[in-house]
Each structure stands twice: as structure tokens, then as C-alpha cells.
Inverse folding.
């Protein structure tokens, strides 16, 4: 453990965005434009400003670590409550194993409680799982399964090639939207699936949908079913409005679209304890992610929350 007098701890504000940009590059090898960081952390319309803390090296002033949450709303038995999703946990390679994760987590959780958050949730990666669960005492309640449908007849992987260049992927999206033009529908005022309606879930009103919007995210309608999809290295299904309306025919049409778009995999996520509908039999479990929670309001009697792809911070 480090002597924390070697660090300055500050609540994250706009002035820290260049520091966060450095941490993204060091921790994840990702160059994130400052405008994208600002957009990501602009959660006021979702219920509250972003909450996070950063550690700065007291001598050099360089960023050492960050822990933050993105506020949003959850609907629980008709009640809208304020919650937040843990995201962007980063420690610079020079400052690891010095207890910064636990220190910053404590600051963030305390302020989240003070700001009226009723619960926090997270899907930590393998590097932050131990610190979150064992040091910060978040509870690992369940796993979220990633299900993959692999096309039997392979297509040319056009989007994977296009993703090597921002310019190429922008051109690819023009092609993809042309293929999908008869299926694309306007974003709905709300978008929530009807699975186990008594179980809490993210409240996806128009503000939330707008926050999650992007040039590679679309609502498409196949027969009577609306899919929220993200075009990335795979077709990622964020959610479906009515799972019970998904027929074998709908799945076949989805596979044909994937083939035309250059995708060999269709992916979606769902809680492990929710059985797959029969029409999804071609989807096979591929991997799983931990679903961890910090509950501040014991009156919630919180046991689980519906998760789909659109509920990950990477969506």
C-alpha cells in the first residue's frame, strides 16, 4: 500500500478531462477525443451530473487513477429511482498496487450516497473485479451471459476491415444504413422490454435513449419486433421490445441482414437466470460478465436487475 500523502485526490470536473484522456490511453490503449469524454460525462439529463474522483501524483501532477459512476434512472415496480453505473475505472501503469482503487472507490460511493443514489451497479473487468468485490465490498449477485449466433454460411467480414479506419467505417455505415433503410424506425419515446416486469431495470426514456445514441446505433423493425442494435465488430443487440414476438422467421430475417451487412456473429446479453425463448435456440452462451451492486437503500429489497446489452457502459 502506498502513502496516500503522495497523491492529491479531487472530484472530477471538466478541467480533469485531459487527464482522463491520458488515463484512457495508458490503461486501455484508446485515444478518446475530449469531446467524447465530455459527452459521456454529461449525465445531467439522466438525473444527476457524473460523479467521480481522480488521484494526481503530488510531485509531478500527472494523473494516477480514476474511479467514477454515471448517474441514470431505474424503474422499480413503477417507481423511478436514481442510481448510477460504475465506469472508467483506470489506474496508470506507474501507479498500480498502491491502494488508489479502494481510496477512490470510497470517495465516489460516499458522494453517490450523499447525492441521493439508491444503488450503484457495475460489470467489472478481470482487473477491477477483486478491488470492487473484496476491497470495496460490492456484492456479486449474478452473471450476465453473452449469447452469440454464428452464421453457418460465412460472409465477407466487411465491417471488421472497415473498423481499422474511422474514415472507412464512416463509409461502411453509409452502406449499412442503405441496406437497412426499409427497416429503420425513429427512436421511441421509451424503450423497455417486457421481461419479468416486476424486476427493476434501467429506465430508458427519451433522455436516456438520446444519451446512448450514436451513428452506429439504430432501431430497426422486423415484422412486429423492434430491435435496438449497434453496428460494431459484431451486430450487438442492445434490447428487444417484445421477446415473445420473436419467431424463428424473425431470426432468419435477422441472419440474412447480418450476411448482407458483412457480419458473421449476432450478439445479445441477458441475465443468466432468465431462460432463453425457444426461438433463440441458435444463440449459444459465449462468455459471462459479473453483475455487481452497491445498494444504499435497504427498503428496496434489491435482489436483481434486468440487464441487456444496452445497459453496459460500453454500449
Amino acid at each position: 500500500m502506498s502513502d496516500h500523502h503522495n497523491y492529491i485526490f479531487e472530484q472530477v470536473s471538466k478541467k480533469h478531462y485531459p487527464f482522463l484522456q491520458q488515463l484512457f490511453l495508458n490503461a486501455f490503449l484508446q485515444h478518446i477525443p475530449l469531446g467524447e469524454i465530455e459527452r459521456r460525462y454529461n449525465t445531467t439529463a439522466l438525473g444527476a451530473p457524473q460523479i467521480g474522483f481522480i488521484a494526481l501524483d503530488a510531485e509531478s501532477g500527472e494523473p494516477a487513477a480514476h474511479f467514477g459512476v454515471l448517474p441514470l434512472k431505474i424503474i422499480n415496480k413503477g417507481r423511478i429511482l436514481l442510481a448510477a453505473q460504475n465506469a472508467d475505472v483506470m489506474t496508470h501503469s506507474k501507479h498500480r498496487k498502491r491502494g488508489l482503487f479502494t481510496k477512490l472507490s470510497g470517495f465516489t460511493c460516499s458522494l453517490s450516497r450523499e447525492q441521493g443514489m439508491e444503488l450503484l451497479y457495475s460489470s467489472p473487468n478481470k482487473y477491477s473485479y477483486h478491488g470492487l468485490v473484496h476491497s470495496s465490498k460490492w456484492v456479486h449477485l449474478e452473471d450476465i451471459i453473452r449469447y452469440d449466433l454464428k452464421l453457418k454460411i460465412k460472409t465477407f467480414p466487411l465491417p471488421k476491415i472497415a473498423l481499422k479506419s474511422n474514415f472507412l467505417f464512416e463509409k461502411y455505415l453509409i452502406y449499412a444504413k442503405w441496406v437497412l433503410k426499409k427497416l429503420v424506425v425513429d427512436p421511441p419515446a421509451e424503450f423497455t422490454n417486457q421481461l419479468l416486469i416486476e424486476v427493476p431495470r434501467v429506465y430508458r426514456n427519451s433522455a436516456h435513449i438520446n444519451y446512448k445514441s450514436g451513428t452506429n446505433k439504430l432501431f430497426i423493425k422486423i415484422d412486429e419486433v423492434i430491435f435496438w442494435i449497434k453496428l460494431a465488430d459484431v451486430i450487438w443487440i442492445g434490447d428487444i421490445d417484445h421477446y415473445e414476438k420473436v419467431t424463428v422467421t424473425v431470426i432468419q430475417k435477422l441472419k440474412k441482414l447480418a450476411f448482407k451487412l458483412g457480419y458473421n456473429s449476432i450478439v445479445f446479453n441477458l441475465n443468466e437466470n432468465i431462460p432463453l425463448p425457444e426461438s433463440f435456440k441458435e444463440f449459444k452462451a459465449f462468455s459471462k460478465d459479473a453483475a455487481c451492486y452497491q445498494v444504499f437503500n435497504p427498503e428496496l429489497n434489491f435482489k436483481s436487475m434486468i440487464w441487456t446489452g444496452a445497459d453496459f457502459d460500453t454500449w
Observations:
- The radius of gyration is 20 Å.
- The helical segments are 17-28, 34-40, 100-114, 129-135, 158-162, 166-179, 206-211, 248-261.
- The longest helix spans residues 100-114.
